[in-house]
Design a protein that fits this description.
By secondary structure, the protein is an alpha+beta fold. It has one domain: Cyclophilin-like (Cyclophilin, Beta Barrel). The protein contains three helices and eight strands. Strands 1-2-7-5-6-4-3-8 form an eight-stranded antiparallel barrel. The N and C termini lie far apart (47 Å).
Length: 187
């Protein structure tokens, strides 16, 4: 009987503590990652909120709205020094967006360079025209630095990103706790 009471107390406490923890989608951007599920596998993007707070907020907002679920990668370029895969267009042809644009942040002094795995906002050939489309660098792209807002980086699954082709589907993107994918380091 005593064991049953302790077990019930344990279950009640576990439920209360579990309910008190915020869901991963409500954590600040620096404690979240985007887990992108594609028909080729999953990859994980960490965010750079200090370098591009507007782009990170926009991207996470669209994830919460499930905007990206079912969209395709509509562009892959490997020529003239450009090596990227691009997605996030609701029309699937590179001409669509969420119905709004965000400001460019590529002049922010905290901007990160375009390295392999960097995630950045795609835009039209005019300022402040990014909305939902993003690209991932398959190789370093230093000529893009200072021209496009970088807001994250692939931290797991770059081998999956390498396999992506035009028309591959993002079946879903979800926000999860960064701690599930990154080990804390002692300072």
């Amino acid at each position: 009987m005593k064991t049953t009471a302790y077990f019930l107390l344990f279950l009640v406490l576990q439920t209360l503590v579990g309910c008190a923890l915020p869901p991963s989608g409500n954590q600040p951007p620096e404690e979240q990652v985007a887990v992108v599920t594609t028909d080729k596998g999953q990859f994980v993007i960490e965010f750079y909120p200090n370098a591009a707070p507007v782009a990170v907020e926009n991207f996470t907002k669209l994830i919460k709205q499930k905007f990206y679920d079912g969209l395709t990668f509509h562009r892959k370029v490997d020529q003239d020094g450009l090596n990227i895969i691009q997605g996030g267009c609701p029309k699937g042809d590179g001409t669509g967006g969420p119905g709004w644009n965000i400001i460019d942040e590529y002049t922010d002094p905290n901007q990160r360079p375009h390295l392999r795995g960097t995630v950045a906002m795609a835009r039209a050939n005019m300022p402040n025209s990014a909305g939902s489309q993003f690209y991932i660098c398959l190789k370093p792209q230093p000529h893009l630095d200072g021209n496009y807002t970088t807001f994250g980086s692939v931290i797991h699954g770059m081998d999956i990103v390498d396999l992506l082709e035009i028309d591959d589907v993002m079946t879903k993107i979800r926000l999860e706790a960064k701690s599930k994918y990154v080990q804390a380091t002692a300072e």
